[in-house]
Structure to design on (360 residues):
DNA sequence: TGTTATCTACCTATCGATAGATAGACAACA
DNA sequence: TGTTGTCTATCTATCGATAGGTAGATAACA
């Protein structure tokens, strides 16, 4: 992995653990094994780095989810897949969703980072809405509402699990969105 | 209002807007009209201040919710009251829930602040569970699950509304927990 | 020989925290 | 009634550490 990729990955890990105001160029440089000036070479400002990290995260996350309208996979399975992705983040990795963290801090983010964070939520909600729309008993408006609800619940569930230091809090919180 | 009270109130406002790492003794001092050393007089460390703010917030919030088991008020009305409290925070005040913000940042909080944040969630979940348990079609285990789900959803809904800059995102997200 | 990437060395600004001083309120006591 | 001591709340000034960021030299490499 190149230093550039290492910087992005390290930044993602740190933001997900400690937030945008909780990491520094020096810390990233130490982990990667370079000097902070070298991090500034790749990302002139902290906002540049944050925006790239958020965009890469969004891309990676959506790629893992796959096509929400592929007929071979039932909507219920897809929702379960979505929850599993978040479960892995908080239970296995013990970290927040990157954009859940950034979303909480949105008022102190540089514009370009706030924009990418918004895009993450828009794309995730669109994905979820497409899945819910495939369910027999759900209309278009209902699907969008469910998508917002599910998105909010998984983000909140990650906060709960970390604060209560109880991975099972995540399971309890998301149970209702899993059982359509 | 005494300087002490002003400090606590200002700190709450700043944490809810910008997070625990997003405010400083100097900023609070400037708003209140004293020097930062005077804030340290009342709260020797940042953790001391954060813990007092979190505890006061929890107390205030639960007081506003009232008794979850008073028979004159239906469970449905109580859940609506809960949502209304959060709606006021995010739509009118345009701020996060204090403990939603602190919960996201829990990994960088001093122990005493993390503890108070945890207490907030425990008490809120207990309150919600008592309300849900009064509903005809809900058992004890189901009530607890619903409480976790509702707690997670409102916190996530506040993040969504702020990040998407759309107050209506809050409404869409919490709709399902309102309609039992 | 350029280009890309990294380095050393530094900047200014701010952080949380502390030391030491002071003005005024209040109480104890000769 | 004065005097003495203590407490509260604030001040000025400063600490070491760290923040984000930059200029210019140097190294690696196509």
């Amino acid at each position: 992995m190149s230093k550039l990729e290492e910087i992005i990955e390290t930044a993602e890990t740190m933001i997900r653990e400690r937030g945008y105001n909780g990491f520094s160029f020096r810390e990233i440089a130490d982990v990667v094994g370079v000097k902070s000036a070298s991090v500034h070479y790749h990302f002139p400002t902290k906002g540049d780095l944050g925006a790239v990290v958020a965009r890469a995260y969004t891309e990676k996350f959506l790629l893992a989810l796959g096509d929400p309208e592929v007929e071979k996979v039932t909507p219920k399975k897809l929702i379960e897949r979505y929850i599993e992705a978040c479960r892995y983040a908080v239970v296995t990795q013990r970290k927040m969703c990157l954009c859940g963290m950034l979303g909480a801090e949105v008022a102190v983010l540089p514009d370009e980072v706030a924009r990418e964070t918004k895009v993450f939520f828009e794309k995730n909600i669109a994905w979820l809405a497409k899945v819910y729309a495939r369910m027999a008993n759900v209309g278009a408006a209902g699907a969008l509402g469910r998508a917002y609800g599910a998105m909010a619940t998984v983000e909140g569930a990650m906060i709960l699990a970390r604060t209560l230091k109880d991975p099972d809090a995540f399971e309890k919180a998301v149970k209702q969105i899993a059982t359509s």
User: Anything to note?
Assistant: Chain B is about 75% helix and 0% strand. The two ends of chain B are 42 Å apart (CA to CA). The domain at 55-178 of chain B is CATH 1.10.357.10 (Tetracycline Repressor; domain 2).
